[in-house]
Structures are given as structure tokens and as C-alpha cells.
Amino acid sequence: NAGVTQTPKFRVLKTGQSMTLLCAQDMNHEYMYWYRQDPGMGLRLIHYSVGEGTTAKGEVPDGYNVSRLKKQNFLLGLESAAPSQTSVYFCASSYSLEDTQYFGPGTRLTVL
Amino acid sequence: GENVEQHPSTLSVQEGDSAVIKCTYSDSASNYFPWYKQELGKRPQLIIDIRSNVGEKKDQRIAVTLNKTAKHFSLHITETQPEDSAVYFCAASDYKLSFGAGTTVTVRA
Lengths: 112, 109
Known about the structure:
heterodimer, A: seven-stranded mixed beta sheet, four-stranded antiparallel beta sheet, B: mainly beta
């Protein structure tokens, strides 16, 4: 039982490049989330999903897209990376909205 | 949307003393209030949570109190130990979870 996993762990991009972050969970959770963490700003919700095939915008969705084609996977895409997207990205999953969120190990992204 | 404010941003305590972190929230519809602990370089992990129909909850050295009328909730850590040093986040949930900015707790030996 791996819980929540994320790939890659680290990535460096140049401005304008694109990339996809992959989140996978093996707990059969319906809800999945993408957060970014910046110093002094806590965890901010980018997008979330309440089930396979659904996605919704969070607090800071601009510049990101997501897809949930399979229940166990939640992908976060950056189409044209900007330095302001330098951050640590965490994926999480939960059984319901008012339940424990289990976080992945994080992806540290640097955009030059 | 929900706005969660957390104080203090940093907290230094002597080992064995108590630590208290306070949070306020804006949306009276919020019903779920978890606390997460994040050690340096690690992922956040839930340490305790409370729902709106409960005023206080305790788990060993950790307790959380909730005042729905005043829209604030607090985390209390008693008999602090070095392993309690971490960043602590409060959160409130209406239809999604909103996190506070975090409190860096340092326990001095």
C-alpha cells in the first residue's frame, strides 16, 4: 500500500516549457487535490476532483490544467511555465471532503 | 470563499512547556477543522481534527478547541518535546479545505 505517490520529485524548467505532474493513489479515494506551497503562504488549492472524469477550480487555478481520466490518477499540467510557478506541489486524496487528506511527498519545481 | 488566519507565525517554547496556536475563519458554513503537521522536507500529515458539533477534542498531548460563535479554533500541545518541532497548519472546510499560513514551532531543549 503506497498511499499517495507523485512523479517527478524534482524538475527544472525554462520559461515557456510545459510539463505534467502525475499523482497516483491506491486507497480508492474519490477526492483528489493539487496544492502549491510557497514560503509564508501555507497550502493553496489549485484544482481538485470529486470523482473520475470531474475537475474543479480551486483558489489559484490560472496557468494550470488538470485531468482525472482514471480514479487513481490526477494529472497537473503547466502549458507554458512561468517563474511565478516555482513552488513545491503537493497532491492529496481523501475519502470525502470532510475527511483526512493524505498527501504525496511533493514535487519541487523551479522555473528559470 | 473561506479565509483562514493563523497566529502566531513562529513560536519558540522550552521543552516541557505548552504551545498554543490560534486560527480564525470567515465562513460560518464551515464544519470541519483539521490540523496538519509538516516536518522539514516532509509532507503534511493530519494530527487532529474537530467537527462543528464538538467543542473540544483531545488526543494524548494534543487538544483542539472550537468556538463556532466567535469563529475561532485553537491547537494546544502540552509537555512539548523536541519532536514537536515542525510547521503546523490549521484549516477550515466549507465545500473545500482552506489552510492557514502556518506556524513554525521550535521546541528548545
